[in-house]
Amino acid sequence: MECLHETLAQIVxxxxxxxxxxxxxxxxxxxxxHSLGLLEDAVVRIAAMTGxxxxxxxxRAIVAMCADHGVVAEGVTQTGQEVTAIVTENMSRGDxxxxxxxxxxxxxxxxxxxxVARPVTGERILQRNLMRGTRNMTQGPAMDRETCVxxxxxxxxVARSLCRSGVRLLGTGEMGIGxxxxxxxxxxxxxxxxxxxxxxxxxxxxxEGLNRKVTAIRAALERNRPDPTDPVDVLAKVGGLDLxxxxxxxxxGAACRTPVLVDGFISAAAALCAxxxxxxxxxxxxxxxxxxxxxxxxLLDALGLTPFLRAGxxxxxxxxxxxxxxxxxxxxxxxxxxxxxEDIQVExxxxxx
Length: 353
Fold this sequence. Notes:
By secondary structure, this protein is α/β, with parallel strands linked by helices. It has 15 helices and six strands. Helix 12 links the parallel strand 5 and strand 6 (285-287). Pathway: Nucleoside biosynthesis; alpha-ribazole biosynthesis; alpha-ribazole from 5,6-dimethylbenzimidazole: step 1/2. It comes from Candidatus Flavonifractor intestinipullorum. It catalyses: 5,6-dimethylbenzimidazole + nicotinate beta-D-ribonucleotide = alpha-ribazole 5'-phosphate + nicotinate + H(+).
């Protein structure tokens, strides 16, 4: 397993010269300057990530980290913990929302059992279980620091393996009943914001359930006192195996100079952990959408990312990442295939000052 410190040392800032060449290509295309907005910006950023203006985004994969959370014992979810295992196995069968969307997007879905509470079966599931779910964080740390580091390194290894197999674009996703509670706790600590401001209803909590969720987060923070300057400490004490694994996927993608799509709230919380561990990792992130969860926009602001979509989505699983992949394909269709001003013998647009 790749050592976390070695991975962090291998992450370099994106290449501004490649970005400049990609922007020059866009500006030569026979259309008004910058008229495709974020789509142009994304291709330019991807060129900088890979170090080449010749951008390729296929093959592609969405990594879904699956894990359970002991905090569900506090009544913070509408459904029981058993749902995590059921949906993880359904992912292997191609029978969840993200599976349907990934097929349209031409992406391989890679479900990873990093911490599901019971053994799961399925040919497509990567068996990487480190714990049968985290402990109840209101009673003590969700996991020990060593296990948290192993979970991050597991995510790194999954990302590296996919990149070495030729994957040019990674998406992130997750499955874990209770993971919005852990994500809200992590976000509260890293952003220095009260739990009430970053905690939402998740998969359909009542007002009473939401109050229990906030109370549980407050109890966990009071009991564990996570260090906001140490993302590993935060993840270990009030996070989850799925969050730690996703943190590793972002770091592994960055180390391989491969763009990684941030999905929604949970994915963005993990992305912030990755960037706090290694600021240069932020150069390799693309925001798919802004989650409808209360902290969705806060996290993207902290990451300095602008989402492609504002669609009111809050499903998770990687559905936002899948939804954006066809948009990137359309951007590349223009970038690679459209005539230039020189080709059609028309005077090029000039930037106005």
